[in-house]
Amino acid sequence: MVFLGIDWGKILTVPFWLTVNPGELSDRFEKIFLVVLLICYAFYGAGYFSEKKLIAKRSFIKANFLHKTGSFFLTMAVSFTFIFFFRYEAIPVLGGRFWIMIWILMGVIWFSYLLRFYLKELPRQQKQLDQKRQLKKYLVKN
Questions:
Q1: Which of 36, 65, 80, 128 is 20 to 30 Å from 44 by CA-CA measure?
Q2: What tens digit of pLDDT does each residue of 15-43 get?
Q3: Which of 96, 114, 90 is nearest to 16 (CA)?
Q4: Distance between CA atoms of 130 and 140, rounded to whole angstroms?
Q5: pLDDT digit string, tens, across residues 91-124
Q6: Contact in structure between 47 and 74 (CB atoms under 8 Å)
Q7: DSSP characters for the chain?
Q8: Going by DSSP bridges, is the β-strand pair 6-7/2-3 parallel, antiparallel, or unpaired?
Q9: What pLDDT does 123 receive?
């Protein structure tokens, strides 16, 4: 089955991903790699500037979350840059397709931790901060 110029029957097989010397990249895959890199760097840049604005507003809990997501996108972008370089230069083993599979797997795992932090830890920390502010309201100021 060929869709978008990709033979999906080949992609879903183990030998396709474990090839040590997969050859040169096609133009379509080069563009896909570069688009993924640009998206990761763009999200990192947007997160960085948003984090600075939140710190200026003294919203440190949300700024901490944006710092974590910024680290995620920067790490993903830098590691994918190395993968792209080795694939582009067709270096055996280091340019293998299995690195892309590992990159995707690690990205999904890390993203799930970020999602868990956003859905569970962030509201809990915000609630604790609100409770501290409520208690501070009644303390005597010197």
A1: 128
A2: 777 877 777 777 877 888 889 899 999 99
A3: 96
A4: 18
A5: 888 888 888 889 999 999 999 999 999 999 999 9
A6: no
A7: -EETTEEHHHHTSHHHHT-S---PPPHHHHHHHHHHHHHHHHHHHHHHHHHHHHHHTT-HHHHHHHHHHHHHHHHHHHHHHHHHHHHHTT-TTTT-THHHHHHHHHHHHHHHHHHHIIIIIHHHHHHHHHHHHHHHTTSPP-
A8: antiparallel
A9: 92
